[in-house]
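Q: I'm writing up a methods section and want to include an example of the input and output format. Could you take the sequence below and give the corresponding predicted structure tokens, formatted cleanly so I can copy it straight into the document?
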Amino acid sequence: MVFAEKLIAWQRRHGRRGLPWQGTRDPYRIWLSEVMLQQTQVSAVIPYYERFLRRFPTVEVLAAASGDEVLQLWSGLGYYARGRNLHAAAKTVSQLGSFPRTAADIEALPGIGKSTAAAIAAFAFGERAAILDGNVKRVLARYHGIAGWPGEKVVESALWERANRLLPKTDIETYTQALMDLGATVCTRNAPRCDACPVRTGCKARKAGQTAQIPAPRPRKALPQKAVTWLLLLDRGQILLEKRPAPGIWGGLWSFPEAPSKDVEGYCRRLLGCEVRSTRILETLEHGFTHFRLQIRPLLCQVKGVPRLESPGRLWIELDEARSAAVPTPVRKLLDRLPA
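A: Here is the clean output for your methods example:
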């Protein structure tokens, strides 16, 4: 049996079953799952996926929603550009009148890369298209003994060549799912279960005893640190939130105003025309991103004399409402620390 045939047979016996996005040809549901699963574990995605579909059961409903509604349901899932791009793509699909049917056309939608487009086309329309997500890169790198970091252009090019060459002529949906399942459950980054692998006899990394070295990890760089002061401004049971600009970190989400570490009273007076009655430094938070670490210094301020006229992108809101708004994880953590 060749590589693809072995994977297809293995998937039918040992592949993952019962995931909420399986057993459908609906491109909207498949697309939603593929976007949510990018850099996110299946167990974390399932509740978000189910809540999202309850609120936005079709691409047309999603397209008609506001950005705040979409990001509110995305809040906590991370990588928020995915949510913004999903919303933008839904509007495009709604204008087109139907979901694109080829990988090339799907890739033209906002936020959809080559591998994700291929997965959607394969599962929804049976197109014979190769995928190459992180798990699949690891499987193919080990099987073919391709050393190096998969993010390198020459390594990724070699992996795409293998991915296209290995495509079966039939059963593309089962084969695609098999690759995903194998990388997620057997050919794992650490301690791969080679004894359970259907293609172990042809795996060059296994034969050479190099499964720990292939693929090579991303080159390590010291992550820069960035420090910010957040103002938690309270007035009569309400707290001030500001909408983050998009694109950018947490773009489109509601966060706390950032302030200079000195002269907070003067800053509040100039920003809001209000007076700070008291301040209290809360415990510092740290939040990691791909390219840097953010150190957050929260400053709880009781204020008075706040004008009730809100300006665009700025909102005074009850604490309970703020906790359920479209806010990033560190903001929600700080809100949860405050008394109800």
